[in-house]
Amino acid sequence: MTRKLLSSTAAVLIASAGAAYACDAPIKVGVLHSLSGTMAISETTLKDTMEMLVEQQNEKGGVLGCELEAVVVDPASDWPLFAEKARELLTVHEVDVIFGNWTSVSRKSVLPVIEELNGLLFYPVQYEGEESSKNVFYTGAAPNQQAIPATDYFLEELEVEKFALLGTDYVYPRTTNNILEAYLKDKGIAEEDIFVNYTPFGHSDWSKIVADVVALGADGKKVGVISTINGDANVGFYKELAAAGISADDIPVVAFSVGEEELAGLDTSNLVGHLAAWNYFQSAESDANEAWVEAWKARMGEDRVTNDPMEAHYIGFNMWVNAATEAGTTDVDAVRTAMYGQEFPNLTGGTAVMLPNHHLAKPVLIGEIQEDGQFDIISQTVEVPGDAWTDFLPESAVLKSDWATLGCGMYNTETETCVQIKSNY
Amino acid sequence: MLWLCRLFLFCAVAVMPMGAGAQQLDAPIQQLLQTHGEIIAKSSRKSIGPAIDALAASGMAEAQVVLQRWQDKEMWFNKDTAVFVFAEEIENRQLRLFDVSDGSEIGTAEKNAYKQLKPNSGIRGMIAAALVQFQLSDPDPNTRTTALDAIERDAEASHLAALRAAIDSEPNIQIKARKTRLERLLTIRFDDDDDTRIAAIVGFKGDLGVDVRAALNPLVTTRVEYAETAPKGAVILIPGADTLGVADAYDLMVSAGDAPARTDASTIRQTLIDNINGTTVAGIQIATLDNDAARLKAYAALARNGAADPLVTDETVRAALGAVTFFEVFIGAPPRVATAAQAALDDIEAAVAFNQTADLALDALSLASIYFLAAIGLAITFGVMGVINMAHGEFIMMGAYTGYVVQLFIPDYTLSILVALPLAFAVTFGAGVAMERLVIRWLYHRPLETLLATFGISIALQQLAKNIFGTQARPLTAPGWLDGSWVINDIVSISYIRIAIFVLALTFLALFLFVMNRTRLGLEVRAVTQNPRMAASMGINPDRINMLTFGFGSGIAGIAGVAIGLYAKVTSEMGADYIVQSFMTVVVGGVGNIWGTLLGATMVGTLQKGIEFLNPSNTLAAQTYMILFIILFIQFRPKGIIALKGRAAEA
Amino acid sequence: MTDTAPSSLSKYSGGAGAEPPRLATPSGGAKPLVQRHPSVLIFIGCLALFTLGITILAEGFGIGVISTSFVKTLGKTLCLCLVALAMDLVWGYTGILSLGHMAFFGIGGYAIGMWLMYARTELIVVESLAQAPLPPTPQEISDGIAAQIFGVVGASEFPPIWAVAHSLPLQLAAVVLVPGLIALVFGWLAFRSRVTGVYLSILTQAMTLALALYLFQNDSGLRGNNGLSGLQNLPGLGDVPQSTVSMWFLWASAAALGLGYLFCAWIVSGKFGSVLRAIRDDEARVRFLGYSVEAYKLFIFTVTAVIAGIAGALYYPQAGIINPAEIAPIASIYLAVWVAIGGRGRLYGAVIGAAFVSLLSTWFTGGQAPDINLGPYTIQWVDWWTILLGLSFVAVTLFAPKGIGGLIVIIERRTTPNRHGADLGPDPGALREKEAET
Q1: Exposed / middle / buried, residue B194 (Cβ in 10 Å: 0-12, 13-18, 19+)
Q2: CA nearest B531 in C: which residue?
Q3: Is there a contact between A363 and A380 (Cβ–Cβ < 8 Å)?
Q4: What is the pLDDT of residues B377-418, one digit of tens each?
Q5: Is residue B85 within 8 Å of B75, Cβ to Cβ?
Q6: Are C114 and C162 in contact (CB under 8 A)?
Q7: If I label B640, which of A40, A306, A365, B457 is the partner at 20 to 30 A Cα–Cα?
Q8: Which own/partner contact pairs does C422-426 have at CB distance under 8 Å and 24+ positions apart?
Q9: Per the CB < 8 Å rule, is B445 touching C437?
Q10: Cα(A204)–Cα(B623) distance, rounded to whole angstroms?
Q11: What confidence tens digit (pLDDT) does each residue in B121-173 have?
């Protein structure tokens, strides 16, 4: 390719383990995570995860006899830049697969490019669903793999009768809360028993909102908080909760965006007992997890923690390796076909399966926050198949995604037609 | 079934020696646990009830211990034999085991062989409720308090009798008061006698407690019903006019089977599709059915042929609703009790509304004091000196990070805050002086360039903080005595940390007034501000004064940073969150007057809380509208609330 | 490149500054613009050469040496240059430091984005509904489009703000009218109240913040934080490869920049331009001379807002996505930074600044710049670039107020003699140091 003339490469070459490879050119794995800007803190961890996985795979002899090479670019938490960098990865560096993105908006930015150039993206973060692209495998949780089971837990185990849905004002909380509202109404919770509030990113003045939540208890129903509050804002929120003397026994809070990494910025002694729902916790007890945590700490330092999106990349990467091996090529269409039905042991002791709708079947874990910033897993479901289109909103209940047999990500089961082949970005 | 097999195994293993002590497998408590082994191991609130009830009702003394240790997550069971033990983790993945019947040590075992019971907080609440009977008259006051907590969270009818029995013997006055109050509340909820309940309800007249409303509100729940004629005394509702919507009222009739469902667009569409006959529906060409009117006509044709249900129009609905009367009935309690509860609630609500306003005012005051604290440094640099310092927010951030770093070295929170406050002042004072000397001094006559240059410094400082501390929020923990809130009643409360910030803001107001009006420095600052040349000719060194003033303003920003970090978060972007609001506060209040800044902060804070109150579900909207309001305010009063007049305004 | 500074500069440069500035110079209508400003011709020539060169080198119609993603970057940079021109007009020439022009830029992007999304989705929905047993009603089509666009943010109904999204001409009108109207109303209120200087800057920044916060809400009806995406796919042109589309946009952007440059040069030359500079240098005196300062300022503020809107409408289809983060106050500050570094009060300075800094910024943050290994610490440019930018900005303000444009003047040895008490502004006749100190 002569096109590289003006776009200098940003490749980070991973030193090979010294093995001799059968093929001459390495297989390129694109890593599209922000290394600077607001999302850097979360995404840099995933970049390190990918480099570790590639290194580990090279020690095992690479893929198809070829060495793997991680091509790292930095989209700098700038959403339009994600699209630009994705194009660069696919056309200039000619990577065979991309692992990347964290925020939904960055994914939506990348989608048209990936679909235009027929790339392959593994997206590792829990998200709001309502999407299924032919070129994306969603290894994070769909709402029915995190939000719905957590709500069930509230309804059944804690007998919560009144819900406060608190979220940061962006797409994931909005859509998740919409789904949850519909779900709760299905379950017989009256509309006036659902309190919804949205706050800006990094919100710090929580006194009135916490007071509002406490006041919900005035009609004698048990109140629970479902929090999709993102990032820094959690610090102020939990501090205000603690100041108001609200214990997890009075008003439990279950968070979908608070994991091991986020708790590192908090004094957790006042939060003991509050909950989080994920598909993975570092405290999961399995041999694979022990080895994983050990390798991570050995590489990054003793005080580093592992979290859910890291496991998603772990599963996604290994499935891709197996699919490529099975297909005998890294060609996108061949690998995609080989991906369906791929099984790989997850770190929590079960087996993850890749479904034809490009989502994983994964168990849902609910953990209580402990003083040491880790989670005590108090509930673990069987594997839940990820659902691209939620069953609880009327517009998407009729939709389903099946790329294996129907070849459509947005299939209307009522009219029995494929709404569109490209995804809705 | 699995559990039965395990029971077999358990019997087989029973004869084998297990470690140091002998495990009493045939002890009644172990037997009882085994009977419910399956549901205990399943550990779900929905099914656990019988196990807890059986333990609580067993009358065994050990039952209390078992419940307590189970609640504390100290109970484990053997994965093979299903035998329950108490256990604690020791090193090397080993467990030290204790017998459930008498707590005696029975040796150690591999952790892998056992599984910990982790009751979730729902189950823990049930266990706590079951333990109440053992704890209400416990000699330890803490245990009795725990029992009362449990009743407050998960009250059961059986607690009422237990509570009544435990009141008279209570030696501690505070606990006795709590017990009495709880007994009254439980009487409202569970007592059989209506008069006793009404008496208890009347006793709570005007009480603001959330628990009282929690007890009363379920009593006044109503349900909408309909009949040909309403029963005597029922509240009659007219669909569409009262709280009852026409659609809801009709849905009520549909769900009772008394009326046909509404024909909506999707029903029409589906019916038409179902009746497609070649290229026509009811003799109408399909291709023409691309609008609602045509579809309605086709449906009407189908209905006439009997192929579809008759069309339910608004008229049909009105007719159906007109034939019956809708009314409300109490379903939470007998009408007498419900009416009494309603009267008590109405009484309480008025007081609640008043107190909510007070709470809102307190919140507004607190927010105002935070804005004031963030803006007071700016009131000096911008208000007095006229220097636009866009890096002011970053000085706040530097102060907060100083607090964080101090806490890394001094683990005692009280001491570290006492060290951090002056240190933050020193650090930002130094930074301010450096900035004044290096940059601002050269730009005194070019305010727009000052703005841009300080912006450059602002983004550089922000990135520098990111490089040093990372983008993740850092903890800045308040000392223990600032934890918690000052609770006036269940509605009005404010956290101590906010009170501390309020006090700090007032202190700085006083300090500012003192320095400006009572010290030599203040005199010189005012002189330099008003006329630098005249001041210079009176022997004042304007350069030095400018430097000190700027340093003073920056130093206060640093202290504000520590305070803000304590109540919220410490991140590299925290300064940017406050900078626009701070400028707004100063500009709205009127530049050059500290009272103006105070008024500005009060206005901004009150406004924000007021808008939040009007639109509680969207805090972001509140911020947007507040900024818009301020923009408009400045358009109509460009000099702010307190405008300087005369020559000072031009200085 | 030669000096394109207003004619007055060459007239007075080198002189002892004895001749007073003449505010009411006749516009010199006798000579055409290009003759009075040969530099305009040079600029247009350079731009045309550049466009031609890229066309030959790019994938779309040329030999394919330049990748499509780089063509897009260049196209976007041209749009940034256009908005920088607008900023130079309002700040460098008129002295209004607006921290709101990137908001107008964003509004332009949103306006065109709404049509792009609507039209693209409409095609999909109509195609999908055509397979249904009954022909769709207009309501069904509209519902289908709404569900597609807003399903992402959990809504399914069109907000009123989308009322004319189906019509390209109307949305194109919105690109011009919405920024223009907002600027007109805001400017009328602000200038009428005599809000000037830093107050106005803070006020424009507050306006930008309010707009960004408003768009951030899902309730605003523009898909909240997600914004509008997939804008690079032109409706009905799904088969045209992006390499071609990117060239179309590059041409359009270059044409817009060329026209914008001509327009700005025309505005700042002649009497009108002199009044603008006079307002910058001493507003009160111009007012005393009988000019309606407010009207001039309002006109420039509105016109530049419109230019910014047009630039945004060309920029975002190339970026592919627009969301509220693009409108954040910091973006407008960066715009001021570009212009300041490029050189205020010179049109080509603004263009050079925007192109130079934004491309450099892309290079540094893109991870392409080599890290510097200092032994114990490695300088990674993604982390240090912002600091460098911030500090270089301070340095430019302090030591080189004329920016890169000033450098060109120095190279050409056309600098005014360095005398104490010289003009403070970049043009002769600007406020003097002595005057400013009073």
Answers
A1: middle
A2: C438
A3: yes
A4: 888 888 778 888 889 999 999 999 999 999 999 989 899 999
A5: yes
A6: yes
A7: B457
A8: C422/C17, C423/C17, C424/B445, C424/B446, C425/C277, C425/C280, C425/C281, C425/C345, C426/C5, C426/C92, C426/C343, C426/C344, C426/C345, C426/C346, C426/C401, C426/C402
A9: yes
A10: 12
A11: 888 888 888 888 888 888 888 888 888 888 888 888 888 888 888 888 888 88
Give the number of domains in chain C. Answer: 1
Nearest to A96 by CA among A133, A65, A71: A71
Q: Please report residues of A whose CB lies closer than 8 A to that of C128.
A: 412, 417-420
pLDDT-based confidence at residue C301 (cuts at 50, 70, 90): very high
Q: What is the least distance, in Å, from the CA of B2 to any CA of chain A?
A: 18
Would you say residue A270 has pLDDT above 80?
A: no
d(CA C282, CA C284): 6
In a domain, C22, yes or no: no
- C36 has a pLDDT exceeding 80: no
CATH level 3 topology of B355-650:
ABC transporter involved in vitamin B12 uptake, BtuC (1.10.3470)
- Per-residue pLDDT reduced to its tens digit, C168-218: 999 999 999 999 999 999 999 999 888 888 888 888 998 999 999 899 887
Percentage above 70 pLDDT, chain A: 95
Contact criterion met (CB < 8 Å) for C128 and A417 = yes
User: Which chain B residue is nearest to residue C216, measuring alpha carbons?
Assistant: B620
Domain of C207 in residue numbering reads as 7-14+33-328
Task: Provide the residue count of chain B.
Answer: 651
Please report how many Cα atoms fall inside a 13 Å half-sphere around the Cα of residue B545, on the Cβ side: 25
Q: What size, in residues, is chain C?
A: 438
Cross-chain CB nearest to B583 (options C202, C216, C436): C202
Q: Which residue of A has its CA nearest to C145?
A: A424
Domains and CATH numbers, chain A: 3-141+285-365 (3.40.50.2300), 147-255 (3.40.50.2300)
**Strand ranges across the sheet with B84-90:** B105-110, B94-98, B84-90, B75-78, B114-116
Per-residue confidence (pLDDT) for residue B238, from 0 to 100: 83
Per DSSP (E only), the strands in C360-435 are: 372-373, 378-379
Do A202 and A170 touch, CB atoms closer than 8 A? no
How much is the pLDDT for C198?
Answer: 82
Asked if A35 reaches chain B (Cβ–Cβ under 8 Å), the answer is no
CB-CB contact of A146 with A364 (8 Å): yes
Give the pTM: 0.85
ipTM of the complex: 0.83
The domain segmentation of chain B, as residue ranges, is: 2-123, 136-220, 222-330, 355-650
pLDDT tens-place string over residues B524-578 = 988 888 888 888 998 999 889 999 999 999 999 999 999 988 887 788 888 887 8
Greatest Cα pair distance, chain B, in angstroms, is 107
Best residue in A232, A268, A372 for a mutation probing chain B (most B CBs within 10 Å) = A232
Neighbors of chain A by Cβ distance (3+ pairs < 8 Å): B, C
